[in-house]
Amino acid sequence: AEQSKVLSAVEDRMDELGAGIAQSRRTVALIKSAALAERERVCRLFTEAAAVLQGFQTEVLGFIEEGEATMLGRSQGDLRRQEEQRSRLSRARQDLSQVPEADSVSFLQQELLALRLALEEGCGPGPGPPRELSFTKSSQAVRAVRDALTVACASQWEQLRGLGGDEDELQKSGTEADAESQDPDSTNSLESEAPRDYFLKFAYIVDLDSDTADKYLQLFGTKGVKRVLCPINYPESPTRFTHCEQVLGEGALDRGTYYWEVEIIEGWVSVGVMAEDFSPQEPYDRGRLGRNAHSCCLQWNGRSFSIWFHGLEAPLPQPFSPTVGICLEYADRALTFYAVRDGKMSLLRRLKASRARRSSSLASPIDPFQSRLDSHFAGLFARRLKPAFFLESVDAHLQIGPLKKSCISVLKR
């Protein structure tokens, strides 16, 4: 009887283990099939991403080739015409030298022919090289894509490494993200309007500093500036920009709230702030407004507005406004750009590091531009800042102001 009990217990245990083994085998098969399916999906997505990058590469290289062909066609055509003109004039000069001095009629005919050739073709040097080649900005666009891709890959990898948290923590993070998106101080809150008179209480009278102006910028008093083709013979100055068509405002800001306005008259223009101690001798790719950690700007590129900071660009959907208001708030470590119309201020973008860095990276997809703000933007306010202006195209023209009748009582600080 005792032996029978033991055998029965063994059989029951074997049945349990058999059921467990079957369940484990199903689990192993499920994991393998899920991993295989996920691997296939990831490979497909990487293939699609590579195709997108390949297509972008093809478009950019085609853009460079097209720009090169167009400009070369014009330049080579000018060169060919000038060479033909020189050849014809050379032949006319040779014919003229062979006319006997006594033959006044033939001499005058040949001289008139040479003069007519010169007048018909025109004179003077051919067009010089363009100040900027449109296709040379291709590397900037690709660099921006590369930087955004690098930030996105790093953030998504952090998310993958953080997998395994409980659902309560995930739900809590999601709730925090929703709350932040509704925060009135959040940079995502772009719908506000405020009366212009409120900002005039913080009006700062900006005067352009001629000792910082690049040689291709012509100043009109202390309020207007235009980019020109011929360099201006400015005196030597250690604060003058040498590689970028930029100019700063006089005086440096280090505390309080400041507000000023800029009228965009023509061309591609960037307006913002730059650290007082930033070197004006930095090369073009690092010295431009918004392409480094020492400056930030709003750019109008002839088609749309965008924000630049630390080499990253954030496009804005708002339409063009000729009058732009800039508000710098040291207490909040914020920089805000407004479109000014009919006494109303429409928010374009408020730049500020997030109030709190989220502990969980699973809350929402990472915005590379906001991530860059969170990491570096507050550092701007550890420096003395100056109003800064970058005139990107050869026809760019801007004017500081208005702030005239409405600011009679505001003293220049």
UniProtKB/TrEMBL annotation:
Record's keyword annotation contains Mitochondrion: no
Residue ranges of the region described as Disordered: 164-191
Pathway annotation from the record: Protein modification; protein ubiquitination
Catalytic reaction annotation: S-ubiquitinyl-[E2 ubiquitin-conjugating enzyme]-L-cysteine + [acceptor protein]-L-lysine = [E2 ubiquitin-conjugating enzyme]-L-cysteine + N(6)-ubiquitinyl-[acceptor protein]-L-lysine
Matching PROSITE patterns: B302_SPRY
A Pfam family assignment: SPRY
Domain B30.2/SPRY span(s) in chain numbering: 186-407
Keywords: Coiled coil, Cytoplasm, Metal-binding, Nucleus, Phosphoprotein, Transferase, Ubl conjugation pathway, Zinc, Zinc-finger
GO (cellular component) term, any one: cytoplasm
GO molecular function, one term: ubiquitin protein ligase activity
InterPro entries, A to Z: B30.2/SPRY, B30.2/SPRY_sf, Butyrophylin_SPRY, ConA-like_dom_sf, E3_ubiq-ligase_TRIM/RNF, PRY, SPRY_dom, TRIM47_SPRY_PRY
Segments crossing the lipid bilayer: none
Subcellular localization(s) per the UniProt record: Cytoplasm; Nucleus
Enzyme Commission number: 2.3.2.27
Enzyme class name: transferase
PANTHER family for this protein: B-BOX DOMAIN CONTAINING, E3 UBIQUITIN-PROTEIN LIGASE TRIM47
Protein's name according to its UniProt entry: RING-type E3 ubiquitin transferase
Source taxonomy: Eukaryota, Metazoa, Chordata, Craniata, Vertebrata
